[in-house]
Amino acid sequence: MTLYGVGLGPGDAGLLTVRGAQVLDEVDVVYTPGRLSRSVALEHVPESRIGDLEFPMTRDEAELRQAWKSAASDVAPTAEDGDAAFVTLGDPNVYSTFGHLRRTIERFHPGVDVEVVPGVSSVTAFAAALDVEIAAGSELTLREASGGDAPVGPDRLILFKVTDVPVTHEKLVDAGYEVTYGRRLFMEQGETVITDDPTELADRDYYTLAYAERADVDDDHALFES
Question: Residue 182's closest CA among 154, 155, 211?
């Protein structure tokens, strides 16, 4: 049968897609990889159909591989005999934990079909939250910026996993960028913060992103005739 990778959206239960809600309503078990995704899933399915999966907080690759193999062993019997869903915040194919499970399932349980149900991601939802318009013709680059990293280059950047905001901010400003930060955007868990003051976000939070735009960027775009 089928394992569905379902994107829950950025954390607001109302931003789950219609297709995502339909799948969650129909599958036998909805597997969740953590507390935040579980809380969103519970807005759509009863706890009796939730399957919790535990993953270690580690960078040890051998330990992580074993954890994903164990998770695949838990999920596969349900997906072989019926239908199951693995839910993740954002989109299952964009910087998601689902990719690890999918590769493990495909290797060790080839009889399971896999289908991805895309979800609203903070990578795109930031524009609404920060009231930013990325007009046609604009160049926008997505980068990771954990631990104080600040990759630069294009006129406009979206940096996610900004875990050391003050350090990243200083580097971006020195490189000629104006920066706005969003923390826990469209998330029902925790406090949503939108600010251009890095001191407000001095504490570490994985769910922090930055929109960086060069101060001298040209925002004039050609208009198409109607």
Answer: 211
